[in-house]
Every structure is written in C-alpha cells, then in structure tokens.
Design a protein that fits this description.
Elements (H helix, E strand, L loop, with lengths): L5 H21 L25 E5 L4 E9 L3 E4 H4 L7 H8 L3 E4 L8 H16 L8 E5 L10 H7 L7 E5 L5 H14 L5 E9 L17 E10 L8 E8 L7 E2 L5 E5 L6 E5 L6 E2 L1 H23 L8 E4 L4 H11 L6 E2 L2 H4 L6 H11 L8 E8 L3 E8 L1
Parallel strand pairs: 5-6, 5-7, 14-15, 14-16
Antiparallel strand pairs: 1-9, 2-8, 3-4, 7-8, 9-17, 10-13, 11-12, 16-17
Helix pairs in contact: 4-5, 7-8
C-alpha cells in the first residue's frame, strides 16, 4: 500500500509504533538491574536502576532479499605490523581477524555510497525497484552527513516519491534495532515495504597509533528488504528483545571534542565551540564481559518471544566483533560453531554493517537457505544489545 498522505500516515504509524513498544515493554518477562553501578558498586548488580528493554513476538513482515558492499582497499594484519607494534599471529589468535576493508580519502566513495550499493543489491535480490519502497532506515554511527545519510541513500536507489527515510544510531546493535523499528511500521499497516541498511566507517574514528583498537575495525554496509505480510501469511521476524544501559556508556564511546573559536561579537567577542570528535575509546575487557554475559540471555529472551528454543535454530549470527565472544556465546547456548555464521576473518568489526554483511554472504553462497531460522544478536556502544529471530 503506497502512502497517499505521507505526513499523517507516518505520524499515526509512528505513534502506533511507540504504543506497541510501550506495551511490549510492560509485558516483558524480566527487568534486570544495571551491571554498571557507581565506582563503588561496579562489578555487582545495582538494585536501583532497571535496564531499558523492549521485547515482542512475531511482526507481520518477512525478509525478501539482502545485499552488501565493502571498500576496495584491503589492510591485512601484516600491513599493520609496520603501523603499530603487533603481528599477524597476535591479532588473529586474539580476535579472529586477518584483514579488513577501509574507506580511503582518495577514492571519492563515502559510506553513504556503500549503503546505497548494498540497498540496491538487496532490491535486486528481492526483484523490486526503488519505486516499491515506502521506508528506508540507515543504521549508522558514522554518516557522511552529520544530519544523516538515509535520504541520500533513498534518492540513490530511486525511493523518492512516497518514501520516508531516516537514520538510526545504536552503534553495533543498530541494524537489529532498525529491523525491529522498520518491522513495527510494516506490522502496524502504515507501510508495505522497507529497506533496512547497516553501514559504518569506524576507521575514520580509530586511533591508528593504538594497537589495541586499530586492529579491530573495518568499513562496510549491508542491507535487507522487509515486506509486510498479509493475513494468513507466515512472519519472517519471529521475535525480538532489545536493551540499553547508559551506565555502561563510558566503556565504549566516541565523545565530542570541541575546539575554541573566538567569534567577534560586540565587546570581547564570544568563544564558540568548533565541532569535532575524539578518537573512539573502548575498555576491551569490560566490553568482552558485557557481551558474553548479556548476549546469551538476550538471545534466549528473543527465542522465548518467538515461541522457539535453541534446538529450533539453524544458524547463529552475532555481531562480528571478536571470535572469542562468538565461541563463548555459542558454548553457553550449546550451539556448535559449525552453525555460527562468521566473516570476521575477512572484514573485521564493521559495526552496524557486520550482521547484514555476513548474512548476505551466507545467503548468496547458499549456506543459508529459504526457511532457515537465524538467531541474530548485536551488542555495542550505548551500551546497547539486542536480538531478533528471522525465518528466511
């Protein structure tokens, strides 16, 4: 169904989405205390602060197709041996990463171009055109335009006449948060077809003199087309659970860094702030503990919302951050590594792009087949984490 009056329909649908989130939150099976207390109580649960959570069962939508894109420039572990004190063996054994793709300044390609390329590939796989799209959501923490890339992506794929587009920022959890957000619009009847993109270029914000962080990140984009399902049609987004906890925000962040600029207003002038950001910082040990603690639980929550168990899962697809995290989560869920989808070795951590990029490769290689149940989980800055269960 195309939008006849975009502003009124979008407003009504958005209000319905918010109402639906509130209802799901009220009926969520569990609210846990924040693990990020004050300096005195950090390391044990706080009894005062509840985690933000939204969870729910099947949404009336299904995946139609996927797409992905990555920069041409490849930086290997061996290449980084001349940049910082490290080695291929040290990086690969601790992270599972062998190389990563990096956007460069001399190629004329930005992250929004990769996002558009991934979206176009997903449309082609779905046998649709941009004119069929009602909604474009771009999950990114590193847009080319501070005001957002989604409208540019929508224009590039030809989704302009009846389409609304916006960015969503939830770091490495962003793609799953965006899928659930898009799924809510489709579920509530305001729209029929959505393109959800995860894209990031965190190489722009990495400290390339810090061997603990520069080895981890790469750039890329991935996309999925979601379409509303009618009465009697099976859902393809079977359940979800989303969380955030701002007390953990200092553990992984890229904070604002303004520089003084004197503006010649009357009198002595006014010192303004010229915008900029620090390098990304991460407490690796705390993030590892956070991920291995929360990800198995959020997957179980989403499976419960879907009415499924771990035994029903064909594939486990986690945010591609570190192979040790994947191994630990799989072990705790008693899922063999043979059922874990990963392309971390070739791309590194691509933030919001990591899940859709890995999924697209698995679909196109024939690893994932129609009807397969995929349990996905993302986690990262915010702190935020979430899970969504898809049937392809």
């Amino acid at each position: 169904m195309k939008l006849i009056c975009p502003s009124s329909v979008i407003l009504l649908s958005f209000c319905t989405v918010i109402s639906s989130y509130q209802t799901h939150t009220q009926h969520a099976s569990e609210r846990r205390s924040s693990p990020w207390g004050t300096a005195r109580n950090r390391g044990r649960p706080s009894t005062k602060t509840a985690l933000g959570m939204a969870g729910g069962g099947a949404l009336n939508c299904r995946p139609l197709g996927t797409g992905s894109a990555a920069p041409q420039t490849i930086v290997t572990n061996a290449d980084l041996e001349s940049v910082v004190e490290t080695s291929d063996e040290w990086i690969s054994t601790r992270t599972g990463i062998s190389k990563r793709r990096i956007l460069t300044n001399d190629g004329g390609v930005g992250i929004k171009n990769l996002a558009a390329e991934a979206a176009a590939a997903a449309l082609e796989a779905s046998e649709l055109s941009g004119a069929d799209i009602d909604l474009v959501i771009v999950a990114t923490s590193s847009p080319d335009d501070l005001f957002g890339d989604a409208t540019s992506v929508a224009a590039e794929i030809g989704a302009t006449s009846n389409c609304v587009a916006f960015d969503l920022t939830a770091a490495c959890s962003g793609f799953l948060f965006a899928c659930v957000t898009g799924g809510q619009f489709l579920h509530n009847g305001g729209m029929k077809t959505a393109v959800v993109v995860g894209s990031d270029a965190l190489s722009r914000w990495v400290d390339w003199d810090d061997r603990n962080s520069c080895i981890l990140f790469g750039d890329g984009a991935g996309a999925m087309v979601l379409q509303a399902t009618g009465d009697g049609e099976p859902s393809g987004l079977l359940g979800y659970s989303l969380h955030s906890d701002g007390k953990g925000q200092p553990q992984l962040m890229c904070g604002y860094k303004g520089t003084d600029r004197l503006v010649a207003t009357p009198g002595d002038g006014t010192i303004m702030s010229k915008g900029g950001y620090n390098h990304m910082t991460m407490n690796g040990k705390e993030v590892y503990k956070f991920a291995t603690r929360e990800v198995p639980t959020v997957l179980e929550e989403a499976l419960q919302e879907a009415g499924l168990t771990v035994d029903d899962v064909d594939w486990l697809l986690l945010h591609q951050a570190n192979i040790r995290i994947m191994e630990t989560v799989a072990k705790r869920l008693k899922i063999p590594m043979e059922k874990v989808i990963t392309n971390l070795k070739d791309y590194g951590n691509t933030s919001a792009a990591s899940i859709p990029l890995a999924l697209d490769e698995a679909v196109r290689s024939g690893q994932v087949k129609k009807g397969d149940v995929i349990a996905c989980a993302g986690f990262g800055a915010g702190l935020s984490w979430g899970s969504a269960i898809f049937r392809m």
